[in-house]
Amino acid sequence: MTSGVKRTSGWSTCGRNKGRRTALTLMWGTIAFLAVTGIILRDRIWAGYLAWELRSIELIVLEDLEPNQEGDGPSTDTLRALTREGGPKWVRGGLGGRGDVWVGDLALDRKRSRVYVGVGGEAGHQVMAVDSTGRALFRIDTGRTSDFTVDEETGNLWSLHDEWGGDPETLVHDPDGKLVARHDWSGGAIAYNRFDRSIWIVGEEVRKVSSQGREMARGPGLGGRWPDVASTHHDGSVWVVCCSWSGAGSSVLRIPPEGEPMAHIAIEPDCLALSERSGTVWLATRDRYVAMTPEGAVLSEAPRDSRGLIHKLIAP
Known about the structure:
Elements: H1 2-55, E1 59-64, E2 77-82, E3 88-92, E4 106-109, E5 114-120, E6 125-131, E7 136-141, E8 147-150, E9 157-160, E10 170-173, E11 179-183, E12 189-193, E13 198-202, E14 205-210, E15 215-220, E16 225-231, E17 238-243, E18 250-255, E19 271-274, E20 281-284, E21 288-292, E22 298-303, E23 309-314
Antiparallel strand pairs: 1-2, 1-23, 2-3, 4-5, 5-6, 6-7, 8-9, 9-10, 10-11, 12-13, 13-14, 14-15, 16-17, 17-18, 19-20, 20-21, 21-22
C-alpha cells in the first residue's frame, strides 16, 4: 500500500512539472510571437505615424532668410513646416551657400510622407530626403538642378536640369536613390499630375510627358525666368508662375488639360502650391500668403513672419 501511495505521488509530481513546462513554453512562445509581430509591424506603425505628422502640416516653405547677403558665413536657406495656425512645426536650416540661389528645389512624396529638398550650392548640388518630422534620411548627387518632382505611383524622383548651363537632361531616381533613367529634357520647373500620371516641364517650351518617358504634348514657352508649376489632380490642369526678365513682376495662369492657357490672375507671387486635401491654391508673395479657390477667387490672406525670398512652396 505504501508503495502504491508513493507511485501515485510520483505521477502527481510529474504531472505538475509537465504542466509548468507547458505553461512556460506557451508564455515564451507568446512573447516570441509578439516580438516577431512587432518587428513586422514596426515599419507600418512608423509609416502611419509619419502620415499623421504630415496631416498636421499646412505648408512647407523653402526660403532664403537673407537673400542679399553673399560671401563667407553660415547658410541662410531654411526649410520650414508650418501648422494650420501658421506657426512652425519644425525648421531645418543651413541648406545652401550664403546668398546662393541655386538651392530652390522642393518636392513632396505624399505616399511615403517624405520631402525632398535641394542642398549645397552651385558647385556641389545634392537632393536630401527628409521625413515628415524633419529627420534627414539620405542624399542623392544630382548636379545642379532647377526643380524636381515625385511620381507618386512609383516614388521615383524626377530631377530637372536648367536650360542655361550644364547638361540639358532630366534624371530619374528610385525611392532608394538609385538612378534608373535619363531623358533629354530641360527647363525651369517640373510637376507630377496624378490625374493621368503625366509630368509637366515648363521652360523655353511647355512639355507634357508620361511617367515612362514618352512625350505626350509640346507647346511654346511662357517666357521669363524661374517659373513655378503645380498640378490639379482632380481635373489634370496645371497652374504656372513666371517672372519677367525685366523684373517688372510675375504672372499666374492656369492651363487646362487641353493646353489652352486661361486668363492671368492679378497677383504677383514668387511661387505657388495646390493643396490636395482642400483644393486650395496657395500663392506666396514677398509679404503674405494668399489662399484662393481653383477658380481664382481669394479666400484669405495672411502676413508672412519673415521677409526672406521663398524658393518653393508645398501644400500637403
